[in-house]
Amino acid sequence: MIILTLCYEILGMSKKYWLMKSEPDVFSFDDLKARPGGTDHWDGVRNFQARNFMRDEMKKHDLVLFYHSNCKEPGIAGIAEISKEAYPDYTAYDPKSLYFDPLSAPDKPRWFMVDVKWVKPFRRTVTLKEMRRVPELRGMKVLQRGQRLSIQPVTKEEFDEICEMGMGE
Fold first, then answer.
1. For residue 150, what is the DSSP state?
2. In the prediction, which pLDDT does 147 show?
3. The predicted structure's pLDDT at residue 169
4. pLDDT at 168
5. How far apart, in whole angstroms, are the C-alpha atoms of residue 64 and residue 19?
6. What's the confidence (pLDDT) of residue 148?
7. Stretches in the chain below the pLDDT threshold 50
8. Which residue, among 120, 104, 124, has the nearest Cα to 112 in the 3D structure?
């Protein structure tokens, strides 16, 4: 990961960092790992701000903190990366899909998705409770009251701090 970061810096490319939430009983970090090549599409996002992050800002090789939400102990399970940039979310066109949107059409897509690739698990989940106790993380959107977005930007410093917490003993 350090080599990739150095390559980005040398080429003048800026990598972005994200937190993506998923309910582990619906789609977990282990589920992502089990997919062919450890890669799957991130569909079903039906919030305009989260959609805009995917469509306009997420780039291939951006890194992701994979967050388990709506469970007994919410927290970050590991690292993933964006492996394919935004493309139309075809679940919006399927009337049988939970994510169907009659206002979206193949010739005028309303919703988008990205592909995400499993990179590395943490030695342990970094819990929401733990993150709240770290002063360096107080600016993270996930820690702010009322922040329910399933996709959120994080700073490199926040990303590094979380990685250190997850990889430490």
1. S
2. 82
3. 58
4. 81
5. 5
6. 83
7. 2-4, 6-11
8. 104
0.85 exceeded by pTM: yes
All residues at 6 or more sequence positions from 1 whose CB lies less than 8 Å from its CB, including other chains: 63, 119
What is the side-by-side order of every strand in the sheet holding 151-154? 39-42, 112-127, 75-88, 63-68, 17-22, 151-154
Q: What is the pLDDT of residue 13?
A: 61
CA 23/CA 113 separation, integer angstroms: 17
Pick from 65, 36, 45: which is nearest to 127 by CA? 65
Domains, the chain, in order of start with CATH, read: 15-167 (3.10.590.10)
Residues 6+ apart with CB under 8 A from 145: none
Cα 169 to Cα 155: distance, rounded to the nearest angstrom: 23
